[in-house]
Amino acid sequence: MKELFQHTAITDSLTVRVAVSFLPEQSRIEAGKWFWVYHIRIENDTDGTVQLMTRHWRITDANGKVDVVEGDGVVGEQPVLEPGRSHDYVSGCPLSTPQGSMEGYYTFRRADGSEFIAQIPFFPLAAPATAG
């Protein structure tokens, strides 16, 4: 399945791309549960090797409720990206409303031990009108 990355953020030659899809088969609309899957591609166009250390997500539902999710790495990994390389992963997000949004940042460590923040682009979570 070829995915179209709909949202992109570039921080100091490090690119974060996001493709998001609503999953009706994982949602339980009658129970007030909507579910999205998102595919992230991180591209290292810097001239040095970097390692993804932490993630910080801000997830907002249609009622304005904000959940902050922080932790080490992504889906259990702290990938090392050499120059010109990329890392892909897929994760999911449940909400109690049919719309919302996600945004955030990753903390990366360079080979010299210094750290920097790479933005994750803002992206909407929207269930089709027919799904709710």
TrEMBL record:
It comes from the Bacteria. Residues 8-132 form the ApaG domain. Gene3D superfamilies: ApaG domain. This is Protein ApaG.
